[in-house]
Amino acid sequence: MLAADVEPAAAAILRADWGDRRTWFEFATTQAECRPVVAEVDGVVVGTGVGTANGSVGWVGTIWVESAQRGRGLGRALTQAVIDGLEAAGCRTLLLVATDEGLPLYERMGFAMQTRYRILEAQGLEAGDLAGPPDDPTRVMRVYASADRDALLALDRAATGEDRGHIIRRFASPETTRVLDQAGDLRGFVIRAPWGGGATVAQTPADAMRILDGRRRTSGRSGRVRVGLVEENAAGLAALEGAGLKPIWSAPRLIRGESLDWRPDWIWGQFNHALG
Ligand SMILES: CC(C)(COP(=O)(O)OP(=O)(O)OC[C@H]1O[C@@H](n2cnc3c(N)ncnc32)[C@H](O)[C@@H]1OP(=O)(O)O)[C@@H](O)C(=O)NCCC(=O)NCCS
After folding, report:
1. Domain ranges, residue 31
2. What tens digit of pLDDT does each residue of 134-159 get?
3. Which of 60, 177, 192, 236 has most Cβ atoms within 10 angstroms of its Cβ?
4. Residue 51, SS3?
5. What pLDDT is recorded for position 136?
């Protein structure tokens, strides 16, 4: 996928009602660690795929084929092209979030179920609304500063088992990022991507609830805030459902290759489901 393919690829996916991927493709075509590909028939884009190398862990995402072209091997070819690019970049673990349509294809290509993402949604809050028990006053949500970067990168690496430094360096800024600070200890963070996701890491449900409360207040009572957990985080899922969040979506996360040294219970939100 070249810069000139972004517009036709995004337009085709939008027409197919599979979401607005323009900003995501703009990122993927301008980030060295991403390997975006397209399938063309007679010079027209009919399929997409994006690989992202987070160190030795690679993400396979946005595998999409125009409905009239399905069942002819393009989906498999796009997935294989993305995998080849990631393996050439040194990835030994491959991850992806599968739709029902994609699952059989990926299983035949050697991916196996690792866990499931659960996406929940909360309504926004006004400044005066109470949410949950009174907060610990030593924990504060504050604007990110560049001096936080090393601690944030270390926390992200411990949580995900991936090296997402290239993404964090591009997106983390005082405008996009909030950190949870307890007496100088960076306990968690949320980073907004330009397409709207919110990568969130926190070490305990209480820390995550504090970050969520901040996000709900920023969004206001008419807004909505989404969080994404994996099934290993049973305590987190119970805490969020107890706080009234409603499950809205769920999808399997698949893995191929070396197992991951990660902390799934520290993960509370994703950049998107093609990136983790
Ligand atoms: C998933 C998707 C990319 C597959 O694209 P595709 O071009 O049809 O895929 P292929 O033609 O390469 O087929 C892939 C496999 O599915 C099989 N297949 C294709 N059409 C099928 C059908 N209608 N029923 C059952 N199996 C089918 C093929 O036999 C092939 O298996 P094989 O390679 O082991 O022989 C496509 O359905 C799509 O874009 N869906 C919407 C977006 C989406 O959900 N993407 C997945 C994100 S995780």
Report:
1. 3-91
2. 567 788 999 999 999 999 999 999 99
3. 60
4. strand
5. 76
